Amino acid sequence: MILLIGYSANASAIEVMHEVSETVESATRLMMRAESEGEIEVHEGPQRALIAAVTFFLVAKAFRLIVFLHYAYALPEFREAHLYRAGGTVLVSLIFMGIIWAPSLKAAAILAAFGIATEIGGRLTIGVFATLERKRAQARERLHLQRSDAGMVENNDGDELPQARHRVRMIPAINIEHMIERNNAFITVVLGESVVSLLYVASTGTIGASRTFGRSALALTVTFIFNALYYSALSKRFVHAIRRHWTTNVVWDTLTWPISTALILASAAVSKIVTEEATPRGVKWQYGCGLGTALLCITASQVLHRSLDVKGASRLSQIERAVARVVVSIIFCLIPLAKDLSDLSFLLVYAGVAGALAIFEVWAMVGAETEEEDHHPVDVEEEEDIEEAREAARDLARQISRNPDGKAD
Predict the structure, then answer these.
(1) Cβ distance 39 to 109 under 8 Å?
(2) Which of 9-13, 21-25, 390-394 is modeled with the greatest confidence?
(3) Which residues on neighbouring strands pair with residue 41, listed in sequence order?
């Protein structure tokens, strides 16, 4: 938390471009500098905050590296997995370390984007290698069993079992419920920051039910609807993306980042829309594209879940509801094209479209009861499956105990 405070404080002080002074002398000096250097130097003025922010980030990565190395030493069964993660942390840290010596903000942004892509790609690459290794081990296992059944291999102490059969690559398990709650809590914090950005201090002209109050109320309505959409799944019953497959797990976890950044982008823009009477069009584009990107990523994260709904459980299927959300996200991005809208009308349109989507979602979720639908709770089904598996294991153990050669019937 201490490192996070240092990082956020310095990252907030980073200026993408300097404010242009109203004096002709300052403007001329800035133009001459832009022509000679092309870009703002990172190591001068307020841009030193970028180096400080990266330093706090690298210190946090160093602590993470120490934890991985400690786990690799203390847990021999999981040593290989933790060493892989430690190596990935070192690689990403080296990329971000280059930002300290980057000649310009453009170069720093490129290195940061490359570091983020490397970290995400590393998770996917490790998953692919682990899957291929598991398939090769299963193929060797099947080959050995076929040879054993054919009598080509004797089942004694001299048996040449493949080493891969005994060398299992142990991967640390994750608490799925904790991971879901952690990501959801982070999105809740981001949405909370969006609400904080809507607050204003009433003064002369804004006291009471003023236009500023109306803009703040409309923006709060949009934020509230986004909160409902994020926690509203596209199916009544589903297998979560984390449980479905390792690829959907990585993608779902990764989508939390663009959702958060898009919402932060929109909240930074709506703060100006609420407090200022004439907002520049660029700020409106920032708000609209932020909301559209956030809704698109939310929809993508929920499509990753495998629906267990039977036919008739809802009026519209998971894909049909997802298509409706994608259409609305495109509309959000295109609303700033309307040039004649005032700030109040601009937010009123967003609140109207978001409200219509919420009403559509409620209508689409309602479905007719069908005889094919299974109403047994999921936990009861899981207990029955576990009991059946235990009974099968006991039968297999009894068969093996009756055969002296160790083979089941």
Answers:
(1) no
(2) 9-13
(3) 104
